[in-house]
Amino acid sequence: MEQYKEEFIEFMVESDVLKFGDFTLKSGRKSPFFMNAGAYVTGTQLMKLGEYYAKAIHDNFGDDFDVLFGPAYKGIPLSVACVIAYAKLYGKEIRYCSNRKEAKDHGDTGILLGSKIKDGDRVVIIEDVTTSGKSIEETFPIIRAQGNVQIMGLMVSLNRMEVGLGGKLSALDEIKEKYGFEAKAIVTMEEVTEHLYNRTCQGRVVIDDTVKKAMDSYYAQYGCS
What are the percentages of helix, strand and coil residues in the chain, rounded to 5? Predict the structure, then answer.
């Protein structure tokens, strides 16, 4: 596993973003772990987060794209932090764009925030996590409606490695199959478990035998290879 991935896993725990316990997800599933990117709240956290995303996007998609699209609401700070990091790490100016939940009818009108998307633009979508793929159903038509653009791929921070809406493939694989672009993550839950199981992180063991058993049970029901 790359060093930045190991660092990112510990960073999620340190920032209280990745938690283990009993959680009800937006999809209705009862999960033994939960990831909340909204818990990144400080300047230092957002700076580091942007750099981890930038490294993962560069590894998976290179820098041959123009716009980073972050769906409202959590995708807004993610896209901003990442384009700043991209300019710093790779000297590449990427424009950020997000959507508004409601179109603005005065001043800077329209549904988009940040850069406009125009014909010929190559777009990478950035999100926190995708459990069932529902968010892309909303995001995809918004981007397509802006013109003749090419969606290069989706980057999330964590691949939960569980089945999506179809009940067979993972949410990220379903996105690739349905929309035709790659869906990648900075780390997978398999990598998280490998790195944290019965190891001390931030002065404690966050995945002990009890948590691991609960995760194994969850993946027996919802997991995919």
Answer: 40, 30, 30
Of 19, 55, 92, 106, which is the active-site residue?
106
Q: How confident is the model at residue 171 (pLDDT cuts 50, 70, 90)?
A: confident
Cα 130 from Cα 107, distance rounded (Å): 33
Catalytic residue among 88, 104, 168, 213: 104
Active site residue 58: no
Active site annotation includes 184: no
Contact in structure between 34 and 90 (CB atoms under 8 Å): no
Regarding pTM above 0.70, the answer is: yes
Strand-pair category, 95-104 with 67-70: parallel
C-alpha–C-alpha distance, residues 130 and 137, integer Å: 11
With tokens 């090419």, the residue in question is: 150
- Altogether, the residues listed in the chain come to a count of 225
At residue 202, φ and ψ (nearest 5 deg) are 55, 40
Dist CA 104 CA 109 (whole Å): 5
d(CA 102, CA 113): 11
Instruction: State the pLDDT at residue 110.
Output: 72
- Between β-strands 18-24 and 30-35, what pairing exists: parallel, antiparallel or unpaired? antiparallel
